[in-house]
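Listing S7. Sequence submitted for prediction.
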Amino acid sequence: MTVTIKDVAKMAGVSISTVSRVINNSKPVSSDIRDRVLKVIKETGYVPNPVARSLVMKKSQIIGVIVPDISNLLIGELLNGIEEIGRMYDYDILLCNTYGEIEEELKYINLLKSKSVAGIVFVTGKIDEKTVNAIEEGNVPAVYIGKNAKDFDIYSVSIDHEKASYEMTKYLIEKGNKKIAFFRASIEDNIEDSERYKGYKKALEDSNIELDKSIVLQGDETSDSGYMLAKDLIEKENIPEAVFASSDEVAIGAMNAFIDNSIKVPEEVKIAGYDDIKIASMVRPSLTTIKTPIYDIGAVSARMIIKMINKEQLDSKHIILPYTLMNRQSTN
């Protein structure tokens, strides 16, 4: 039998409104009555109805999280950070998976608004003005995780991808490499818009190395794609001195292609990736990569949302977290 707030009130000898005040800490209640009510709640295992509680408190304890692909390893780490901070502050997570489609993003924004969520963490490859407007129209606090967040007047968390990519490319150049291939892990039509690609190009330019577009290849964010891109260069006998892939999975796929074709890594070709997924340190040779603080990005986003919900002061709208260049076997 499910215990109701009415049952708790009867057993504690108080009114339903008094039980509500104790649960929601909305109005003063004497310590004796509070202790009595809490004792009954503990003994009966009573769980407050979240919908009813949100009506009383005039806000829900749910944070909506919109992501483009729940199967992505990085999304899982991001969600861990969001969920842990949410749990610390008694917020539940309502997850929406959009597959990167703007129509799905808009649909889920409307769904979350209909559920009266307290806030939204919006994760997307590219933030669109339509989605920003849809969230703002609902007057819902939101934090965005997307590479073009700085183009909007919104709250966001990220790292400086252009700077990180620049640093990795310069690192490879300092290793004595001039012919450095860039494998773009994206299905976007215009790779010129990529911050990581910009960082790569700028590092070449600053080192007086001419951009060779024959070794700038575009695929998708899979190891199979990285394998095929590397195989294409091998078949064309256009083998670079180093490969910088803007995704660890692509980098690992490329590494496998070179090794399968008896091209030694790192002796003949050095390989670097981006993100530092868990397998990056487990493959052999272990992968040199840019470590993005994925968990921290999720955790900071959740904390920002909770501060916004509670109308607390935020130091900045755009939070930039530090990255780390992980120097491993694939470039040594």
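Caption to Listing S7: primary sequence and predicted structure tokens for the chain studied. The chain is about 45% helix and 15% strand. Residues 114 and 138 are 9 Å apart (CA to CA).
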